[in-house]
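ESCALATION

Customer reports they have been waiting on this structure for their group meeting. Please prioritize. Original submission:
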Amino acid sequence: GNAKKLLHIAPESQLKKKLQSHSEIDYLNADYNPKNADVQMDITQIDLPDEQFDVVICNHVLEHIPDDHKAMSELYRVMKKNAWAILQVPISWKLEQSYEDFSIVTESGREQAFGQKDHVRVYGKDYLDRLQKVGFGVQQFSTNDYMSVQESKHFSLIPNEPTFFCKKK
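Update from on-call: job pushed to the front of the queue and completed.
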């Protein structure tokens, strides 16, 4: 059929419900933790052929992954030509370069350095460069450009957060 194939990584429950309910979406949700989604998946090694998906949604995942370049490349690989993705991460606009230090391995050390015990970096303004390096064309929007504060809270989105709209050329 004409259903758009959508891959949703680490699915937010409200968004998952909404997307699953659309008959024109062929919906696959996946997470590294098998309890959190229908399919278990390591996004640094996606066990699927090239060019499978029309859309990928992957919010607040990449800051947990040491080899984010590999993860971004894999997401890019499984996307069809002209497919698009929303790839959200927390960003510190004070940082020119993303901050990562792989010698920090304790939960308390990570919490102190990166703001959360399971984060491995704080992204800076170079996040767009990182996306572009794997081939994405990137446009930036603010959540407020397309929904109310109330709507963004309902969908567990952060009001005013920049949205990275990535396209596979």
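Sent to customer with the following note: Residues 131 and 163 are 13 Å apart (CA to CA).
Escalation resolved.
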